[in-house]
Amino acid sequence: MTTHFKMIFTTCKDEAEARTLARALVEKKLAACVNILPNMGSIYMWEGEVAEATEAKLLIKTKSDKMNDVFLTIKELHSYEVPEIQVVEVSTGNLAYFNWMDEVLN
Fold it and tell me: Which of 10, 44, 45, 79 is the most exposed place for a label (fewest CB within 10 A)?
């Protein structure tokens, strides 16, 4: 079964920013659901230095045709100069959940 759904990942500087972004995506019907994983430790390279931060990870559930609007909303509301935006294809899953997503996102 192939679906028309995507899972988009991004990180935010803190849980407050994550909640603001998640709420905006759901209110605009760009995401059926956004999970927030707070207090995630990140180690990364930035401007030639190894940096560490505590961030919040967002798992954004959406449809393929809403993906670009999700990108634009993330870039508009995000505090990072270069926000993470990664997309995972959803190839299969619970049909009842997908039906719910279709209903919510129409």
Answer: 45
